[in-house]
Amino acid sequence: MFKTANFAGDFWGGTAAMLVAMPSAIAFGVTIYATMGESYGAYGAIAGILGVAVIGITASLAGGTHRLISAPSAPAAAVLSAFALNYTNLDFGPDLIIVMLMVVALLAGIFQVLFGAVGLGRLIKYMPFPVVSGYLSGVGLYIVASQTPKFLGIPQGVHFWKSLQYPALWQWQSITVGLITIGTMLYADRLFRIIPAVIIALSVGVVAYFTLGMIDPALLQPNNPFVIGELGSNAGSSDFIHSLMRHFQEMLHLSWHDFYLLFFPALTLAALLSIDTLKTCIVLDSMTHSFHNSNRELIAQGSSNILTALVGGMPGSGMMGATMVNLTSGATTRLSGLIEGITAIIAFAILGSFVAWIPVAALAGILIVVGFRMIDRHSFKLLRTRQTALDFFIIVAVAISALTISLIAAAGVGLLLAILLYIIQQIGASVVYRHQDGTDARSKIVRSKEENAILREKGDEFSIYELHGSLFFGTANQLYTMLREDLQSKKYIIIDMKRVQTVDLTAAHILLQIKDILHDKEGYLLLCRLPHKLPTGEDVESYFNHVGLLKHLSPIKVFDDLDDAIEWTEDKIIGETIAEDSAELPLELGEFDLFKGRKTDTIDEIRSLVECRSYKKGEVIYNQGEGNGEIFLIRRGLVRIMLPYPERKSVHLSTVGKNNFFGEFSFLEGVPHYTNSIAGADTDVYCITRESFDLFSEHHKKASFHFMLSLAAVLAERLRLTRSELGEEYDV
């Protein structure tokens, strides 16, 4: 189960981690249980120590993350101390509150196991950063506020604001010990790099306390208000197990209504502990270049918290500080966590009697530093720019909600504001990636001079909109507003949706309105490159069909490619100008632009070269590598020129139509074709092979010269148009 190749590193890492986790766990436990009375502080200290031992051992045995150290943590202290204080104020008895704390911890562990079992581990770690930051800052502020009265030596039951209002109640002994402990916590890392700061701070605080005892002998009296004291006021320090069994019996008498009251605090605790653990795991991954299993880690953490609750210990999570000490001490496996738990038991057995003399002010000083370090001070930098200022206010709102209402309310406030911020950002960003007027756009089809002239004159009848991002209720009206002017003057609107990430019903309804407006002027809405698999797994075309956007005979056309949509629109515009019947008649040789101005005798001489061929729509004219030098003149129809690739879809280079030619490079070089050609419609062509042309040129030099000259002129014109299109595309 455990690898022992690096036993020394795991041993020293686990031991050092225990020394860091133990004082904090004692402080957290005292924070929770002291709310029920000063005499219960020692009970809390034992609960914290048990938490270190049981969580460390169980999480490691259950398959937790390598090098991760788990122990009672600040989020658990914040939630459970607030819970205990609330029910203390409601006059619940201490024994009942302890039972309720055990049940909350037990339910939280069960929730964590369920989180891992259903795969929520992957989701919890993706909670928005401002929400997590606000949570941690709120917890940190709560810890500072709850420890301030103890730091000042205020009697039990006086809260933060009241403790500041009555300086007469402040005890100089507590303040002195607390300040010395805080100062040690802040500067110990700089002076003693080997020993953890929390160990040094606690030791210095204890020494300071006993030094003050020489001035004030009352400090050396057992169970005085300045120290944790022995377990319980009535039972003494030897009856922890008996108390635990009594609490088990009381747990059995809880009603379903009682469990219902504990449900939401337990859910809050489970969420916070899970987030805290996974946040630590992510940091650990980045430092060790490893990958943790979030769901397995939650199951391990939940199992350890269940067992901790059953033995009366304090629940916990993965601890950042102890984990970093474990890592830097040389640990490499989860064996270090097991050693941490075992050494905690040994340390408690040896130092158990010492716990009663730990100064409360020293623990308060340690926790105040921990609380301040949990506050995300870097978040104030978010105020520097307008774009991040809203993130800062989300952090503040979550922290204030955590302090004034509850952590559950803080979660709801944070998530609601994060969603609202996302929507605002989406609305603020333009959904239109690029807009082109039809006069600036051309399909890949090679047009005749007459057709190009028509498109130059009437190209303003259509527009192209390339969209990106989320097309939903927040941006759909933005699209409609941007289209409004074109809807008054254009007959054809092409919308390219290749970069669209999400679509909702509002967006579909807006597209339906656009389609109806175009239909009234006998126009069309053309949709192209509809995503067949959005990040949500949704097929946009299927969705549009489902909501009734793509009805039969509807003035909406769907195309797989943007060029196909532009080509269809151009054909529509040209077809409205040129008579359709004449467009379908095959051209004779002399009608080609290539031969215009040539004498009848020359045409007759060239006619002897050509071979008439016909192809059905979809039929392959030639494939790459076929032929040995031949050129095709299109009498009627369309031909698509494709560049094939072995492992992916062929690239559409161009479409050539009536009165054009293709295969010219093979003809000029006398080599096989380097592209594929497919009939895009029923097509008639004239074919001239290079072999027959060479024979012809031996006897008709002048005619062959004029043929090559005309061919070169057309190719030069095509090159000029290509250069112009590239210039518009890349602004050169």
What does this structure look like?
The chain has 732 residues and is α/β, with parallel strands linked by helices. The protein folds into three domains: 11-375, no CATH class; 429-578, Transcription Regulator spoIIAA; 585-730, Jelly Rolls, CATH 2.60.120. It has 27 helices and 16 strands. Strands 3-5-6-7-8 form a five-stranded mixed sheet, with helices on both faces. Strands 4-13-12-15-10 form a five-stranded mixed sheet, with no helix packed on it. β6, α20 (505-520) and β7 (524-528) form a beta-alpha-beta unit. α6 (129-152) packs antiparallel against α17. 44% of the residues are buried. Residues 232-237 have low confidence and may be disordered.
Please sum up the structure shown.
By secondary structure, the protein is an alpha/beta fold. It is built from 27 helices and 16 strands. Helix 4 (94-117) crosses helix 10, helix 6 packs antiparallel against helix 15 and helix 11 (256-288) crosses helix 12.
